[in-house]
Amino acid sequence: MQLTSKTFVKPESKLTGLFLENPSLMLMMEHFDLSYVVHDKTVTQVCNENNISLELFLSVANLYNGFHKTSHTVNSSADIMTVIAFLKRSHYYYKQEKYPEIRNLTEELFHLNETPEIKLVGKFFDEYFEEVTEHLEYEDQVAFPYFLSLIDHPGVFSAGSKFSADEYLDHHTDIESKLIELKNLLLRHIPVKNDRSTRRRLLFSLVELEYDLTIHSTIEESILIPGIKRLESGMNNG
Known about the structure:
The protein is an all-alpha fold. It has 2 domains: 15-64, no CATH class; 77-232. The protein is globular, with a radius of gyration of 20 Å. The chain contains 9 helices and no strands.
């Protein structure tokens, strides 16, 4: 599950202790392509060893720990590339791990409770995840390549492009809200019939997906896009 503590992550914080308080930080480490077997190392030590911006890491870690406002924006090419790689790995997690997990649980729920309402849950989630996949593919195939091109041509590439950070924000949809509807269906409108364990596991998985998607959107809108806009203006700091 997600948040179990509201410890504010600091440079001197020991990561193993943070993982024990909030296991979702281990998923964050996977998105950063880092091992969460870090022994007794601090945040600063892990960032230095892996050439990751300390400020960026702290901003993301504190999002995972429930501090949902961040004033940090990426201000270097390296940080932009790190954030985009982080987001792309999260896309893989949604499509290859979380969606199959949730879909299997909806199938299991239907076998235990063969009602039209349960079948509707599976259909609702399939349609929802089609929208999510479309959103993720738009980022992978359109937005991220444009952002990476700006690194080599700050303030130049955008001049002849039909795409921009503003257009990306206009396209940016709220892909978390429909999960609330699905949770409400399971909690309020579908009778329980020998399926409590499966329903609980399904709800937990939906909560985990919603939580990570919310952070994913915050990183894009509050950390990445302001940095991209600076690149579009030719204000890259290198």
